[in-house]
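USER: Please consider what follows.
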Amino acid sequence: MGTVFSFVVRAPRSPSVTAALAQAVAWLHHVDRVFSPYRPDSQITRLAEGRTDVDACDPEVAEVLRLCAEIGHATGGAFTAEPGGRLDPSGLVKGWAIERASDILHRAGARDHYVNGGGDLQLRGEAAPGEPWRIGLADPHDRSRLIAVVSGRDLAIATSGTAERGAHIVDPRTGRPSTGMASITLTGRHLTEVDALATAAFVMGEAARTWAEAHPRIEALAVAADRSTWCTPGFDGLLAAS
């Protein structure tokens, strides 16, 4: 998936947790083999090129395409599984894969952990007894400083922006890269939804503010290209005490 994944697990060492960690890593490698648009042998590449069909792919492919269609409908077309006209559901796959990896650990008894994929995180439980996780959000205009520190339990956090890869997020409604924002960070409960919605919100530009404030399951912090910022009213409640 073109990024680095890491796990932080706060649990007693046990055979079940060790096995679950190996299973979660294997799951992420499986997702990469199936969904990577950079691999000529992946099912998504073969599907995009017409060398196979959905029925011949793993069941997860149909699931992901269904979820992409649902997010696209819910965001008025600001999200698509075909950015630039070519099949590529990466805007949803990473968050979906991370959340599934977290579920594997949780079922094995690792109640307190997080999975981080390129800065998008699924947090479960606590960092220490009675202590929430604390996650720093980098300033997209100066990666050496933080713009905020989010604190929470059982929380998903995803950021879309231009800091790492430039203007690479295409507005499916215009076919052109979105440039109105430098970054937008969304929080919610499930990273599958939060990661995809962060991509859509970035595409929306300034309209994302009204949309995010009306959304019942997310909070948002945005940094515009001109360095101005805004956040939804509930985002303040997630900020860690200094």
About this structure: Helices lie at 15-35, 43-48, 59-74, 90-107, 191-204, 207-214. The mean pLDDT is 93.
